[in-house]
Specification:
With 438 residues, the protein is an alpha/beta fold. The protein has three domains: 4-135 and 303-336, NAD(P)-binding Rossmann-like Domain (Rossmann fold, 3-Layer(aba) Sandwich); 138-298, Dihydrodipicolinate Reductase, domain 2 (2-Layer Sandwich), CATH 3.30.360.10; 350-432, ACT domain (Alpha-Beta Plaits, 2-Layer Sandwich). 35% of the residues lie in helices and 26% in strands. It contains 14 helices and 17 strands. It has helices at residues 13-24, 26-33, 64-68, 84-95, 105-122, 138-145, 160-172, 176-185, 194-197, 200-214, 233-241, 303-319, 366-376, 407-418; strands at 4-9, 37-43, 59-61, 75-78, 99-102, 126-127, 151-157, 224-225, 244-255, 258-269, 281-288, 292-299, 351-361, 381-386, 395-402, 405-406, 423-432. Strands 7, 8, 9, 10, 11, 12, 13, 14, 15, 16 and 17 form an eleven-stranded mixed β-sheet that branches. The protein has a six-stranded parallel β-sheet with strand order 3-2-1-4-5-6, sandwiched between helices. The protein binds NADPH dihydro-nicotinamide-adenine-dinucleotide phosphate and L-homoserine.
Protein backbone atom coordinates (compact mmCIF):
# COMPACT_ATOMS: atom_id res chain seq x y z
CA UNK A 1 0.00 0.00 0.00
CA UNK A 2 1.18 3.55 -0.69
CA UNK A 3 2.66 5.49 2.26
CA UNK A 4 0.46 8.03 4.01
CA UNK A 5 1.86 11.47 3.22
CA UNK A 6 2.41 13.93 6.00
CA UNK A 7 2.94 17.68 5.89
CA UNK A 8 4.64 19.25 8.91
CA UNK A 9 4.08 22.84 9.97
CA UNK A 10 7.08 23.69 12.14
CA UNK A 11 10.46 22.07 12.50
CA UNK A 12 11.42 23.19 15.99
CA UNK A 13 11.61 21.08 19.17
CA UNK A 14 8.46 19.01 18.54
CA UNK A 15 8.59 19.10 14.73
CA UNK A 16 12.24 17.97 14.74
CA UNK A 17 11.48 15.32 17.37
CA UNK A 18 8.60 14.01 15.26
CA UNK A 19 10.82 13.61 12.17
CA UNK A 20 13.42 11.82 14.30
CA UNK A 21 10.95 9.38 15.90
CA UNK A 22 9.30 8.61 12.55
CA UNK A 23 12.73 7.97 11.06
CA UNK A 24 14.10 5.93 13.97
CA UNK A 25 11.01 3.74 14.56
CA UNK A 26 9.59 3.85 11.02
CA UNK A 27 9.45 0.09 10.50
CA UNK A 28 7.62 -0.62 13.77
CA UNK A 29 5.32 2.35 13.34
CA UNK A 30 4.22 1.17 9.90
CA UNK A 31 3.64 -2.36 11.24
CA UNK A 32 1.32 -0.83 13.81
CA UNK A 33 -0.41 1.62 11.46
CA UNK A 34 -0.74 -0.78 8.53
CA UNK A 35 0.85 1.80 6.20
CA UNK A 36 4.19 3.56 6.02
CA UNK A 37 4.18 7.19 7.18
CA UNK A 38 6.26 9.63 5.15
CA UNK A 39 6.91 13.31 5.82
CA UNK A 40 6.92 14.79 2.33
CA UNK A 41 6.85 18.52 3.06
CA UNK A 42 7.64 20.78 6.02
CA UNK A 43 7.50 24.48 6.72
CA UNK A 44 9.51 26.76 9.01
CA UNK A 45 10.11 30.50 9.23
CA UNK A 46 13.82 30.41 8.52
CA UNK A 47 15.09 27.62 6.30
CA UNK A 48 18.74 28.49 6.97
CA UNK A 49 18.49 27.47 10.65
CA UNK A 50 20.16 24.23 11.74
CA UNK A 51 17.67 21.53 12.79
CA UNK A 52 17.68 18.71 15.35
CA UNK A 53 16.56 16.32 12.59
CA UNK A 54 17.63 15.45 9.08
CA UNK A 55 15.46 17.08 6.41
CA UNK A 56 16.72 14.87 3.62
CA UNK A 57 13.89 13.88 1.30
CA UNK A 58 11.52 16.51 2.77
CA UNK A 59 10.50 19.44 0.57
CA UNK A 60 11.04 22.57 2.70
CA UNK A 61 9.11 25.79 2.41
CA UNK A 62 8.68 29.05 4.30
CA UNK A 63 5.08 29.14 3.14
CA UNK A 64 2.96 27.01 5.47
CA UNK A 65 -0.03 27.70 3.20
CA UNK A 66 1.66 25.54 0.54
CA UNK A 67 1.66 22.58 2.93
CA UNK A 68 -2.03 22.81 3.86
CA UNK A 69 -3.04 23.15 0.22
CA UNK A 70 -0.67 20.47 -1.12
CA UNK A 71 -3.00 17.93 -2.80
CA UNK A 72 -0.52 15.09 -2.12
CA UNK A 73 -0.71 15.49 1.64
CA UNK A 74 -3.14 13.38 3.69
CA UNK A 75 -2.36 14.57 7.22
CA UNK A 76 -1.17 18.01 8.33
CA UNK A 77 0.75 18.15 11.62
CA UNK A 78 0.60 21.62 13.17
CA UNK A 79 3.64 22.32 15.38
CA UNK A 80 4.21 26.04 15.00
CA UNK A 81 2.32 27.09 18.15
CA UNK A 82 0.36 30.29 18.77
CA UNK A 83 -3.27 30.82 17.93
CA UNK A 84 -3.57 33.21 14.98
CA UNK A 85 -1.61 31.69 12.12
CA UNK A 86 -2.10 28.20 13.54
CA UNK A 87 -5.91 28.59 13.55
CA UNK A 88 -5.91 29.88 10.00
CA UNK A 89 -3.73 26.97 8.82
CA UNK A 90 -5.65 24.27 10.70
CA UNK A 91 -9.03 25.50 9.43
CA UNK A 92 -7.61 25.70 5.93
CA UNK A 93 -6.21 22.14 6.17
CA UNK A 94 -9.63 20.90 7.36
CA UNK A 95 -11.40 22.76 4.55
CA UNK A 96 -9.01 21.05 2.13
CA UNK A 97 -10.12 17.65 3.52
CA UNK A 98 -6.92 16.90 5.45
CA UNK A 99 -6.75 15.25 8.83
CA UNK A 100 -4.91 17.29 11.44
CA UNK A 101 -2.62 16.38 14.32
CA UNK A 102 -1.55 19.15 16.67
CA UNK A 103 0.39 19.62 19.91
CA UNK A 104 -1.03 23.12 20.33
CA UNK A 105 -2.96 23.31 23.60
CA UNK A 106 -3.55 27.05 23.31
CA UNK A 107 -5.18 26.51 19.94
CA UNK A 108 -7.42 23.67 21.19
CA UNK A 109 -8.34 25.38 24.48
CA UNK A 110 -9.27 28.65 22.76
CA UNK A 111 -10.61 27.49 19.40
CA UNK A 112 -11.23 23.76 19.79
CA UNK A 113 -15.05 24.07 19.70
CA UNK A 114 -14.86 25.77 16.31
CA UNK A 115 -12.13 23.46 14.98
CA UNK A 116 -13.96 20.26 15.99
CA UNK A 117 -17.22 21.50 14.46
CA UNK A 118 -15.40 22.23 11.18
CA UNK A 119 -13.68 18.84 11.26
CA UNK A 120 -16.93 17.00 11.93
CA UNK A 121 -18.64 18.82 9.10
CA UNK A 122 -15.80 17.92 6.70
CA UNK A 123 -15.48 14.33 8.01
CA UNK A 124 -11.82 14.65 9.04
CA UNK A 125 -10.03 13.96 12.31
CA UNK A 126 -8.25 16.40 14.59
CA UNK A 127 -5.99 14.64 17.08
CA UNK A 128 -4.28 16.44 19.95
CA UNK A 129 -2.76 13.92 22.39
CA UNK A 130 0.51 15.89 22.55
CA UNK A 131 -1.33 19.01 23.70
CA UNK A 132 -1.63 17.71 27.28
CA UNK A 133 1.19 16.36 29.44
CA UNK A 134 3.76 15.74 26.68
CA UNK A 135 4.44 12.03 26.26
CA UNK A 136 1.73 10.78 28.66
CA UNK A 137 -1.24 9.32 26.73
CA UNK A 138 -3.68 11.01 29.10
CA UNK A 139 -6.25 12.01 26.48
CA UNK A 140 -6.50 8.43 25.30
CA UNK A 141 -6.66 7.16 28.88
CA UNK A 142 -9.59 9.39 29.84
CA UNK A 143 -11.39 9.34 26.51
CA UNK A 144 -11.14 5.60 25.93
CA UNK A 145 -9.67 3.71 28.89
CA UNK A 146 -11.98 5.34 31.45
CA UNK A 147 -15.03 5.58 29.19
CA UNK A 148 -17.06 3.47 31.64
CA UNK A 149 -16.51 5.86 34.53
CA UNK A 150 -18.12 8.95 35.88
CA UNK A 151 -15.01 11.07 36.41
CA UNK A 152 -15.26 12.68 39.86
CA UNK A 153 -12.11 14.76 39.75
CA UNK A 154 -8.62 14.92 38.35
CA UNK A 155 -5.53 16.73 39.53
CA UNK A 156 -2.32 17.01 37.59
CA UNK A 157 1.12 18.47 37.30
CA UNK A 158 0.68 19.48 33.70
CA UNK A 159 3.44 21.96 33.02
CA UNK A 160 6.95 20.52 32.80
CA UNK A 161 8.74 23.86 32.94
CA UNK A 162 6.97 24.90 36.13
CA UNK A 163 7.63 21.56 37.82
CA UNK A 164 11.27 21.69 36.75
CA UNK A 165 11.60 25.17 38.31
CA UNK A 166 9.92 24.20 41.60
CA UNK A 167 12.01 21.02 41.86
CA UNK A 168 15.33 22.77 41.24
CA UNK A 169 14.44 25.55 43.70
CA UNK A 170 13.59 22.98 46.39
CA UNK A 171 16.39 20.48 45.81
CA UNK A 172 19.26 22.76 44.89
CA UNK A 173 18.16 26.15 46.17
CA UNK A 174 18.53 27.49 42.63
CA UNK A 175 17.29 30.86 41.51
CA UNK A 176 13.93 31.01 39.67
CA UNK A 177 15.22 32.97 36.64
CA UNK A 178 18.26 30.76 36.26
CA UNK A 179 16.19 27.53 36.16
CA UNK A 180 13.71 29.07 33.73
CA UNK A 181 16.59 29.95 31.38
CA UNK A 182 17.72 26.31 31.51
CA UNK A 183 14.18 25.07 30.75
CA UNK A 184 14.12 27.35 27.72
CA UNK A 185 17.48 25.99 26.55
CA UNK A 186 16.20 22.43 26.90
CA UNK A 187 13.17 23.22 24.70
CA UNK A 188 10.61 22.74 27.49
CA UNK A 189 9.28 26.29 27.73
CA UNK A 190 6.67 27.95 25.57
CA UNK A 191 7.71 30.61 23.02
CA UNK A 192 6.47 33.08 25.66
CA UNK A 193 7.60 31.52 28.97
CA UNK A 194 5.15 33.60 31.01
CA UNK A 195 2.62 31.02 29.73
CA UNK A 196 4.53 28.43 31.78
CA UNK A 197 5.27 30.40 34.93
CA UNK A 198 1.93 32.23 35.18
CA UNK A 199 -0.12 29.06 34.74
CA UNK A 200 -1.64 29.91 31.34
CA UNK A 201 -0.20 26.82 29.66
CA UNK A 202 -1.49 24.59 32.48
CA UNK A 203 -4.89 26.31 32.19
CA UNK A 204 -4.99 25.53 28.45
CA UNK A 205 -4.34 21.88 29.27
CA UNK A 206 -6.84 21.82 32.14
CA UNK A 207 -9.50 23.29 29.84
CA UNK A 208 -9.01 20.27 27.58
CA UNK A 209 -8.93 17.74 30.42
CA UNK A 210 -12.05 19.25 32.01
CA UNK A 211 -13.97 18.98 28.76
CA UNK A 212 -13.08 15.37 28.08
CA UNK A 213 -13.68 14.42 31.72
CA UNK A 214 -17.10 16.07 32.06
CA UNK A 215 -18.42 16.27 28.48
CA UNK A 216 -18.60 20.05 28.39
CA UNK A 217 -17.50 22.56 25.73
CA UNK A 218 -14.00 24.05 25.98
CA UNK A 219 -14.20 27.26 28.06
CA UNK A 220 -10.69 28.53 28.76
CA UNK A 221 -11.97 31.87 30.09
CA UNK A 222 -13.69 30.12 33.02
CA UNK A 223 -10.50 28.59 34.44
CA UNK A 224 -9.04 30.18 37.58
CA UNK A 225 -5.33 30.72 36.94
CA UNK A 226 -2.49 31.44 39.35
CA UNK A 227 1.18 30.86 38.47
CA UNK A 228 4.31 29.98 40.42
CA UNK A 229 6.19 33.24 40.02
CA UNK A 230 5.39 34.37 43.59
CA UNK A 231 6.47 31.12 45.28
CA UNK A 232 9.42 31.81 47.56
CA UNK A 233 12.06 29.46 48.92
CA UNK A 234 10.67 30.33 52.36
CA UNK A 235 7.31 28.76 51.48
CA UNK A 236 9.05 25.74 49.94
CA UNK A 237 10.96 25.25 53.21
CA UNK A 238 7.88 25.67 55.42
CA UNK A 239 6.03 23.15 53.25
CA UNK A 240 8.80 20.61 53.91
CA UNK A 241 8.73 21.36 57.62
CA UNK A 242 4.97 20.72 57.73
CA UNK A 243 5.21 17.47 55.72
CA UNK A 244 4.04 18.89 52.39
CA UNK A 245 5.44 19.74 48.94
CA UNK A 246 4.38 22.68 46.78
CA UNK A 247 3.24 21.57 43.34
CA UNK A 248 1.62 23.59 40.59
CA UNK A 249 -1.63 21.70 40.03
CA UNK A 250 -4.46 21.81 37.57
CA UNK A 251 -7.63 20.59 39.29
CA UNK A 252 -10.98 19.73 37.70
CA UNK A 253 -13.66 18.55 40.09
CA UNK A 254 -17.39 17.99 40.15
CA UNK A 255 -18.90 20.09 42.93
CA UNK A 256 -22.30 21.19 44.12
CA UNK A 257 -23.72 23.46 41.45
CA UNK A 258 -21.14 22.81 38.74
CA UNK A 259 -17.49 21.99 38.28
CA UNK A 260 -14.28 23.50 39.55
CA UNK A 261 -11.51 24.29 37.05
CA UNK A 262 -8.48 25.80 38.73
CA UNK A 263 -4.72 26.07 38.34
CA UNK A 264 -2.61 27.22 41.27
CA UNK A 265 0.35 26.33 43.48
CA UNK A 266 -0.82 23.72 45.97
CA UNK A 267 0.46 22.17 49.17
CA UNK A 268 0.11 18.38 48.90
CA UNK A 269 1.13 15.83 51.55
CA UNK A 270 4.66 14.60 50.83
CA UNK A 271 3.57 10.94 50.97
CA UNK A 272 1.33 11.37 47.90
CA UNK A 273 2.81 10.05 44.65
CA UNK A 274 2.07 13.39 42.97
CA UNK A 275 4.24 15.16 45.56
CA UNK A 276 7.18 13.10 44.33
CA UNK A 277 6.86 13.91 40.64
CA UNK A 278 9.95 15.96 39.99
CA UNK A 279 11.75 17.86 37.25
CA UNK A 280 10.14 17.99 33.82
CA UNK A 281 7.96 14.97 34.64
CA UNK A 282 4.18 15.39 34.64
CA UNK A 283 1.52 13.26 36.30
CA UNK A 284 -2.26 13.25 36.30
CA UNK A 285 -4.34 11.57 39.00
CA UNK A 286 -7.86 10.74 37.85
CA UNK A 287 -10.62 9.68 40.23
CA UNK A 288 -13.27 7.61 38.45
CA UNK A 289 -16.27 6.15 40.25
CA UNK A 290 -15.59 2.65 38.93
CA UNK A 291 -11.80 2.49 38.47
CA UNK A 292 -11.09 4.54 41.60
CA UNK A 293 -7.86 6.54 41.45
CA UNK A 294 -5.55 5.96 38.48
CA UNK A 295 -2.26 7.79 38.00
CA UNK A 296 -0.49 8.61 34.74
CA UNK A 297 3.16 9.66 34.82
CA UNK A 298 5.77 10.60 32.24
CA UNK A 299 7.82 13.34 30.60
CA UNK A 300 5.73 16.48 30.24
CA UNK A 301 7.84 18.24 27.62
CA UNK A 302 10.80 17.78 25.30
CA UNK A 303 11.36 16.72 21.70
CA UNK A 304 11.14 12.92 21.79
CA UNK A 305 8.51 12.62 24.54
CA UNK A 306 6.14 15.00 22.78
CA UNK A 307 6.89 13.40 19.42
CA UNK A 308 5.81 10.08 20.95
CA UNK A 309 2.30 11.51 21.41
CA UNK A 310 2.27 13.18 17.97
CA UNK A 311 3.24 9.90 16.29
CA UNK A 312 0.66 7.94 18.32
CA UNK A 313 -1.97 10.33 16.96
CA UNK A 314 -0.66 9.81 13.44
CA UNK A 315 -0.99 6.05 13.87
CA UNK A 316 -4.55 6.46 15.21
CA UNK A 317 -5.49 8.63 12.24
CA UNK A 318 -3.95 6.22 9.73
CA UNK A 319 -5.68 3.20 11.30
CA UNK A 320 -9.08 4.83 10.93
CA UNK A 321 -8.57 6.45 7.51
CA UNK A 322 -10.93 4.00 5.87
CA UNK A 323 -13.40 3.88 8.78
CA UNK A 324 -16.83 5.46 8.83
CA UNK A 325 -16.42 8.96 10.42
CA UNK A 326 -19.37 8.20 12.71
CA UNK A 327 -17.41 5.30 14.23
CA UNK A 328 -14.42 7.42 15.28
CA UNK A 329 -13.69 8.31 18.90
CA UNK A 330 -15.32 11.73 19.45
CA UNK A 331 -12.90 14.65 19.88
CA UNK A 332 -14.09 15.50 23.38
CA UNK A 333 -14.86 11.91 24.46
CA UNK A 334 -18.64 12.45 24.40
CA UNK A 335 -20.68 12.44 21.20
CA UNK A 336 -20.89 16.02 19.85
CA UNK A 337 -24.65 16.23 20.41
CA UNK A 338 -24.18 15.02 24.00
CA UNK A 339 -21.74 17.78 24.96
CA UNK A 340 -23.49 20.13 27.37
CA UNK A 341 -22.66 23.32 29.19
CA UNK A 342 -21.90 22.88 32.91
CA UNK A 343 -21.42 25.95 35.14
CA UNK A 344 -17.85 26.51 36.30
CA UNK A 345 -17.76 27.64 39.93
CA UNK A 346 -16.34 31.06 40.73
CA UNK A 347 -13.19 30.73 42.83
CA UNK A 348 -15.00 32.32 45.83
CA UNK A 349 -17.30 29.28 45.87
CA UNK A 350 -14.55 26.67 45.79
CA UNK A 351 -13.87 24.86 49.07
CA UNK A 352 -10.31 24.01 50.00
CA UNK A 353 -7.85 24.10 52.90
CA UNK A 354 -5.15 26.76 53.23
CA UNK A 355 -1.58 27.49 54.23
CA UNK A 356 -1.23 31.07 55.49
CA UNK A 357 2.04 32.85 56.21
CA UNK A 358 2.27 36.28 57.75
CA UNK A 359 4.70 38.50 59.63
CA UNK A 360 3.33 38.92 63.17
CA UNK A 361 4.47 41.39 65.82
CA UNK A 362 6.49 39.58 68.47
CA UNK A 363 4.13 40.25 71.38
CA UNK A 364 1.35 38.34 73.17
CA UNK A 365 -2.17 38.41 71.76
CA UNK A 366 -1.47 38.61 68.01
CA UNK A 367 -1.97 34.90 67.39
CA UNK A 368 -5.17 35.05 69.45
CA UNK A 369 -6.49 37.91 67.27
CA UNK A 370 -5.74 35.96 64.09
CA UNK A 371 -7.36 32.82 65.52
CA UNK A 372 -10.42 34.88 66.53
CA UNK A 373 -10.92 36.22 62.98
CA UNK A 374 -10.69 32.70 61.57
CA UNK A 375 -12.94 31.25 64.28
CA UNK A 376 -15.65 33.86 63.62
CA UNK A 377 -15.93 32.43 60.10
CA UNK A 378 -15.93 28.83 61.20
CA UNK A 379 -12.40 28.30 59.87
CA UNK A 380 -10.64 25.79 62.08
CA UNK A 381 -6.89 25.66 62.40
CA UNK A 382 -5.06 22.39 61.80
CA UNK A 383 -1.53 23.49 62.68
CA UNK A 384 0.34 26.60 63.84
CA UNK A 385 4.07 27.31 63.59
CA UNK A 386 5.48 30.45 65.14
CA UNK A 387 9.17 31.05 64.69
CA UNK A 388 11.48 32.50 67.33
CA UNK A 389 12.41 36.11 66.61
CA UNK A 390 15.74 36.72 64.92
CA UNK A 391 18.06 39.24 66.57
CA UNK A 392 16.91 42.78 65.87
CA UNK A 393 13.57 41.69 64.28
CA UNK A 394 10.31 42.80 65.88
CA UNK A 395 8.14 40.59 63.60
CA UNK A 396 8.23 36.81 63.36
CA UNK A 397 6.86 34.44 60.71
CA UNK A 398 3.51 32.97 61.75
CA UNK A 399 2.35 29.98 59.72
CA UNK A 400 -1.10 28.40 59.87
CA UNK A 401 -2.68 25.43 58.18
CA UNK A 402 -6.48 25.53 58.13
CA UNK A 403 -9.22 23.02 57.45
CA UNK A 404 -11.43 23.32 54.38
CA UNK A 405 -13.51 26.44 53.94
CA UNK A 406 -15.20 28.36 51.10
CA UNK A 407 -12.66 30.65 49.44
CA UNK A 408 -14.98 33.64 49.83
CA UNK A 409 -14.85 33.22 53.64
CA UNK A 410 -11.07 32.95 53.53
CA UNK A 411 -10.77 36.12 51.41
CA UNK A 412 -12.74 38.05 54.03
CA UNK A 413 -10.66 36.59 56.85
CA UNK A 414 -7.40 37.50 55.09
CA UNK A 415 -8.60 41.08 54.57
CA UNK A 416 -9.37 41.37 58.29
CA UNK A 417 -6.04 39.79 59.29
CA UNK A 418 -4.08 42.14 57.03
CA UNK A 419 -5.82 45.09 58.71
CA UNK A 420 -4.60 44.03 62.18
CA UNK A 421 -2.07 46.34 63.71
CA UNK A 422 0.05 43.36 64.78
CA UNK A 423 0.36 41.99 61.22
CA UNK A 424 2.88 43.49 58.83
CA UNK A 425 2.30 43.42 55.07
CA UNK A 426 0.31 40.94 53.03
CA UNK A 427 -0.69 37.41 54.06
CA UNK A 428 0.70 34.71 51.76
CA UNK A 429 -1.97 32.13 50.95
CA UNK A 430 -1.38 28.78 49.27
CA UNK A 431 -4.22 26.29 48.86
CA UNK A 432 -3.86 22.82 50.37
CA UNK A 433 -5.25 19.63 48.80
CA UNK A 434 -5.05 16.21 50.41
CA UNK A 435 -6.06 14.38 47.21
CA UNK A 436 -7.84 11.59 48.99
CA UNK A 437 -10.41 9.53 47.19
CA UNK A 438 -13.38 11.82 48.07
P1 LIG B 1 9.53 25.73 18.54
O1 LIG B 1 9.58 27.20 18.73
O2 LIG B 1 10.69 24.93 18.91
O3 LIG B 1 9.18 25.42 17.01
C1 LIG B 1 8.22 26.12 16.30
C2 LIG B 1 8.44 25.87 14.82
O4 LIG B 1 7.43 26.51 14.07
C3 LIG B 1 9.77 26.41 14.31
O5 LIG B 1 10.31 25.51 13.37
C4 LIG B 1 9.39 27.73 13.62
O6 LIG B 1 10.23 28.05 12.54
C5 LIG B 1 8.00 27.38 13.12
N1 LIG B 1 7.13 28.54 13.04
C6 LIG B 1 6.79 29.38 14.04
N2 LIG B 1 5.92 30.30 13.59
C7 LIG B 1 5.72 30.02 12.28
C8 LIG B 1 4.94 30.61 11.27
N3 LIG B 1 4.18 31.67 11.53
N4 LIG B 1 4.97 30.07 10.03
C9 LIG B 1 5.75 28.97 9.79
N5 LIG B 1 6.50 28.37 10.72
C10 LIG B 1 6.49 28.89 11.94
O7 LIG B 1 8.22 25.24 19.31
P2 LIG B 1 7.93 23.80 19.91
O8 LIG B 1 8.32 22.76 18.94
O9 LIG B 1 8.48 23.75 21.28
O10 LIG B 1 6.35 23.85 20.08
C11 LIG B 1 5.48 23.62 18.99
C12 LIG B 1 4.08 23.38 19.54
O11 LIG B 1 4.09 22.24 20.37
C13 LIG B 1 3.53 24.52 20.40
O12 LIG B 1 2.15 24.60 20.22
C14 LIG B 1 3.83 24.05 21.83
O13 LIG B 1 2.97 24.60 22.77
C15 LIG B 1 3.59 22.56 21.67
N6 LIG B 1 4.26 21.71 22.63
C16 LIG B 1 5.58 21.85 22.89
C17 LIG B 1 6.22 20.98 23.74
C18 LIG B 1 7.68 21.09 24.05
O14 LIG B 1 8.18 20.30 24.88
N7 LIG B 1 8.41 21.99 23.42
C19 LIG B 1 5.48 19.89 24.41
C20 LIG B 1 4.07 19.82 24.05
C21 LIG B 1 3.50 20.70 23.19
P3 LIG B 1 11.79 28.41 12.77
O15 LIG B 1 12.39 27.17 13.36
O16 LIG B 1 12.31 28.68 11.42
O17 LIG B 1 11.80 29.56 13.71
N1 LIG C 1 5.89 24.40 27.93
C1 LIG C 1 5.20 23.20 28.14
C2 LIG C 1 5.62 22.61 29.48
C3 LIG C 1 5.47 22.22 27.04
O1 LIG C 1 6.66 23.02 30.00
O2 LIG C 1 4.92 21.76 30.00
C4 LIG C 1 4.67 20.95 27.14
O3 LIG C 1 3.31 21.19 26.92
Amino acid sequence: MKPVKIGLLGLGTVGGGTVNVLERNGAEISRRAGRALKVVQASARDLTKSRICSTEGIALTERSEDVVSNPDIDIVVELIGGTDKALELVLSAIANGKHVVTANKALIALHGNEIFAAAQERGVMVAFEAAVAGGIPIIKAIREGLAGNRIEWLAGIINGTGNFILTEMRDKGRDFADVLAEAQKLGYAEADPTFDVEGIDAAHKLTILGSIAFGKPLRFDKVYVEGISKITSEDIDYAEELGYRIKHLGIARRANGGVELRVHPTFIPERRLLANVDGVMNAVLVQGDAAGPTLYYGAGAGADATASAVVADLVDVVRTLAADPEARVPHLAFQPDAISEVPVLAMEDVETAYYLRMAAADRPGVLAEVAHILGERGISIEAVVQKAPEAGMDHVPLILLTHRVREGEMNEAINRIEALEGIQGAVTRIRVEHLDAN
